[in-house]
């Protein structure tokens, strides 16, 4: 079971507005338009904030900015930098995996990649140092036995990726999972939002060499059930084993009926609301069966 449905806390407003300011700055240079966009986003949030779900509300205001500015991919440069950072760290990560090639080590490698998140951090964050300092972090929630049992019990897994750059680390875990004779289906968003991975980033990372890649039919930040395409809804409903990366996907999954599914959330907790929900410290690594 999960830890309860996640609704927006008072802290979520400040976090979403910080991220909105960043996407506005990256999307346009017209100061008048910037003011209008921020004013509109504040009004959208004020209307829906009380009963909102964090990643759903963040998705709505990001989609609004994209529609009004016509800037399809404001984080394109940041996504390229994320991939460069991830690739530069691969030698260190592979040294760790060479010393211990157990499943848990690969899980931790995938989770450390979840630090590469411009939604949670700002564009000036030293991600390389942050990841390097956490390469040997242990799991605060560790459902590794259940995870390995699921790998031994199913012949297919739906893998919900999160951020560009991060998926370079996901590739390592997917390679390890395939040793359990499971087919892997990777789900990406259909068009850009913040620095989340789309089809291009997944292919660039070589995930198409290991898995069948599909899109969710939307540009949501993490799982937002009402935005699924019909095709993705069918895949999701029929999937009995799901691996979910990141906080936004975790938030969305807590809203859904997951009965009968083996669902595992892999994330680095980067905010207080998620950390409170999971009863862990900010910065903790999590492998949790929902």
What does this entry show, briefly?
Helix content is 49%, strand content 12%. It contains twelve helices and seven strands.
Notes on the structure:
With 290 residues, the chain is of the alpha/beta class. The chain has two domains: 10-69, Helicase, Ruva Protein, domain 3 (Orthogonal Bundle), CATH 1.10.8; 76-289, Uncharacterised protein PF01937, DUF89, domain 3 (Rossmann fold, 3-Layer(aba) Sandwich), CATH 3.40.50.10880. Helices cover 49% and strands 12% of the residues. The chain has twelve helices and seven strands. The chain has helices spanning 10-27, 31-48, 54-69, 76-99, 103-112, 127-132, 144-153, 166-177, 199-204, 230-238, 247-253, 272-278; strands at residues 139-142, 156-160, 183-188, 212-215, 241-245, 262-268, 285-289. It has a seven-stranded mixed sheet with strand order 1-7-6-5-2-3-4, with helices on both faces. Helix 1 packs parallel to helix 3 and helix 4 crosses helix 8 (166-177). The longest helix is centred in the N-terminal third of the chain and has 24 residues, at 76-99. It is globular and about 55 Å long. It starts with 9 loop residues before the first helix and ends with a strand. The model has no long low-confidence stretch (mean pLDDT 94).
């Amino acid at each position: 079971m999960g830890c309860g449905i996640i609704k927006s806390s008072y802290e979520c407003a400040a976090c979403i507005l910080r991220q909105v300011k960043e996407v506005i700055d990256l999307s346009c240079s017209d100061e008048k338009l910037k003011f209008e966009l921020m004013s509109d986003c504040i009004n959208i949030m004020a209307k829906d904030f009380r009963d909102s779900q964090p990643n759903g509300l963040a998705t709505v205001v990001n989609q609004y900015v994209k529609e009004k500015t016509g800037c399809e991919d404001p984080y394109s440069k940041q996504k390229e930098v994320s991939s460069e950072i991830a690739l530069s760290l691969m030698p260190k990560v592979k040294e760790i995996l060479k010393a211990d090639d157990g499943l848990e080590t690969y899980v931790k490698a995938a989770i450390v990649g979840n630090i590469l998140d411009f939604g949670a951090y700002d564009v000036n964050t030293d991600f390389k140092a942050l990841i390097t300092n956490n390469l040997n972090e242990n799991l605060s929630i560790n459902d590794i036995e259940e995870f390995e049992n699921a790998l031994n019990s199913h012949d297919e897994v739906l893998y919900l990726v999160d951020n560009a750059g991060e998926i370079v680390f996901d590739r390592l875990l997917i390679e390890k999972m395939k040793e359990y004779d499971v087919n892997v289906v990777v789900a990406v968003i259909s068009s850009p939002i913040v620095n989340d991975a789309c089809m291009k980033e997944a292919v660039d990372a070589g995930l198409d060499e290991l898995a069948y890649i599909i899109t969710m039919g939307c540009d949501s930040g993490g799982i937002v059930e009402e935005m699924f395409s019909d095709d993705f809804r069918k895949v999701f409903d029929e999937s009995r084993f799901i691996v979910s990366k990141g906080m936004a996907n975790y938030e969305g999954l807590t809203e859904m009926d997951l009965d009968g599914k083996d669902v595992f959330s892999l994330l680095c907790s980067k905010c207080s609301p998620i950390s409170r929900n999971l009863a862990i410290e900010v910065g903790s690594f999590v492998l949790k069966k929902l």
